[in-house]
Model the fold of this input.
Amino acid sequence: MFAQFSETLAGLQLPLRVVVKGGPTLDLTEDPRVTLLINDPNLLGDMQAPTLDKLGDAYVSQRMDIQGDIMDVIEVADRLSKGLLGELASPPVERTEHDRQMDAEAISYHYDLSNDFYALWLDPQMVYSCGYFRNPEDSLATAQTQKLDHLCRKLRLKPGERLLDVGCGWGGLARHAARFYDVEVHGITLSKAQLELANRRTAEAGLEDRVRLELLDYRDLPGRENFDKIVSVGMFEHVGHRNLDRYFAILHEQVKPGGLVMNHGITAKHVDGRQVGQGAGKFIGRYVFPHGELPHLSMAIASMSEQGLEVLDVEGLRLHYARTLEHWSRNLEQRLEEAAELVSDKALRIWRIYLAGCAYGFRRNWMNIHQILAVKPHADGSHHVPWTRDDIYR
Done:
């Protein structure tokens, strides 16, 4: 089997060494930067067609181990897959009928993993979304503070306004908006672990009178036109294509006439939402984000428009997210021993591959991320948003 495997890889100029446990070694170049330690010799047969999904699965299940810089590992895996298989056609996107129970279970699986684990590699405010780098050299903490402020400025928050934060996470944006813009924030999440820590940090910051966070599905928001502004960050990836219209209809229903809605989320490269990346999306769906679906920008805009929200501004932040993920991945790699005390070996393997793989994918335009700002016009079509963006950058 090893002879056939060696013949398959012959001619691939990759900085890769393959070591079979208790067996032979194969170097594809004189100076390999990445080593695959094959624990299960039967894996050699599977590696005749090595998609990123198969390679990731083999690592997560301990059929192989890896040595080398994690970013080099991801690049070599991608080049190995393309070298043997070429560019794979993307399978059709699966559209799931998301219900409350499915979404709650998916959110709990991902976000309730361990607050302490997330704290190892996130910024001090624990902002789990794309940072905003005014300069490429900005630190992660600086970029996340700049992102929070960028969102608040785009929303033109004013003292005394009511802001709905859909998918509030650990409450970083809610606290920033309350502290620096003097607004009243109502945040909702489906993660019990996030909510517990978010409420504790809100109390420690002395912001309980202006920030209220609760465990609530967006479909269960009561009443109408309760909020002056709405923000949703890293949330609509969990909504599902079939539910997009309902989701944006609820945001339209909850915001007052003339109010602004900001949707910040990952978007698909292809218009039909199909995945790219040699099976990377399949790995993420199985191990990281169950039932996650990425709409294309055009799908999001169309849905917002059909629900009565007028899109005013769109900003793509793909390279910002690549840089953010590189920071996260580096932070985790530097604290692997601590992380191993907080989560299982399987979970740690998943997250090492996920963070580095997503950094690689965003860098290479496998997916995108957009901030979409919209307004709910008054009945006569008017609104009071400034005519230019000048106020955002003053």
Observations:
- The first helix runs from residue 2 to 9.
- The two ends are 65 Å apart (CA to CA).
- The chain has a mean pLDDT of 95.
- The CA atoms of residues 53 and 279 lie 5 Å apart.
